[in-house]
Protein 1
Amino acid sequence: MRTLILYSSTDGHTIKICQFLQKIIERQGDEISLISVERESDIDLQDYDRVIIGASIRYGKHSPLIVDFINNNAAMLDTLPNAFFSVNLVARKPEKRAPDTNPYLKILLKQISWKPMQLAVFAGKLDYPRYKFRDRLMIRLIMWMTGGPTDRNAVVEFTDWKQVEGFGRLVSQMKQSPTAST
Ligand SMILES: Cc1cc2nc3c(=O)[nH]c(=O)nc-3n(C[C@H](O)[C@H](O)[C@H](O)COP(=O)(O)O)c2cc1C
């Protein structure tokens, strides 16, 4: 099967998660295209048998490019086995890591008509040294307010890789188009 993994990532952590998923899916001999949403004009969904979309959160939002891609391709997405995952720091708290408890995923699902067959929320990476001054200040303030790390040198990967692995196994099993199963 040919799988498209489409992503939006600012600092590369969502790409790392996508590459991890890619390895799991490739184990069964499937072909993967890992493509940034910035290159969405190169994509023809008809070329694929399965689609996974992943996007990180920046200041409360998924990239508008991802939202637009989903809205412009909702009908086609529904014809393929499909999945979506969100990456954010709120999800470092296990009680905010489920599709129905993560505020960003809940908002996204209201903005789009597509109903992904599989959903996941992964905790992201905190990397203060990498951030620009203003971003570091803002994220430290948010972390201070929510009980997270505030040391300006902190680099913490909160991602639960076992959770990502479980999701990878699940999506690599998706073979039938949702319309074909109804
Ligand atoms: C400028 C900036 C703003 C962010 N805003 C949020 C936010 O509003 N909520 C949240 O949970 N995480 C927020 N994050 C955390 C990112 O979602 C997290 O670091 C994620 O791993 C980034 O993935 P990426 O490297 O693929 O973009 C923010 C990170 C940065 C750098």
Note: The first strand starts at residue 2 and ends at 8.
Protein 2
Amino acid sequence: MHWGPNTEPDTQAFVRRAIADQSSKPRTRYEFAITVKASGELIGGCGIEATRPERKEGVIFYSLNKAHWGKGYGTESARALVDFGFARLALHRIFALCDPSNIGSNHVLNKAGMTLEGRQREDFLMRGKWRDTMVYAILEREWSSTGQLLGGLSPSN
Ligand SMILES: CC(C)(COP(=O)(O)OP(=O)(O)OC[C@H]1O[C@@H](n2cnc3c(N)ncnc32)[C@H](O)[C@@H]1OP(=O)(O)O)[C@@H](O)C(=O)NCCC(=O)NCCS
């Protein structure tokens, strides 16, 4: 789930892909639901993909229902994804991409312990306008030195 899903066909394709991911071997992509612990309410989704498994590199992504922004769930999700990527997938490097104007996401990536590595200029065409992309990343040794433990991510299958 990178930028959506939006339309019904988008949603169907997203669900089909998430289901197919579960049985792909080797598995390189995990989609997670973000729920409120107390109520079980579904408030968003997040995921991690080993983009270049041979280099042990992966990317994280997340999206929350607007009604639940600013409550710390984005930060909690990003941290859990980073934990999952290093502890479970044995990655060496995890990165994330975000729009420079997305203040919330830039904050989230900082708070997940990631370092801003740079800004790719006009690498993304959105609604007819070229956009820059911020690149954040964290290495396994940086993560392990913080003593983080595996977060609450549990892929049931
Ligand atoms: C980006 C997103 C995940 C942030 O999630 P969130 O749960 O609101 O983030 P948090 O509550 O963990 O906030 C983290 C920090 O960013 C700050 N922040 C969040 N949104 C902000 C905003 N719009 N403007 C300024 N600061 C913001 C919070 O105050 C917090 O800072 P603090 O710890 O110093 O108080 C959420 O806005 C979202 O789902 N957006 C749409 C999808 C998206 O952009 N995904 C990311 C693609 S790269």
Note: The two ends are 18 Å apart (CA to CA).
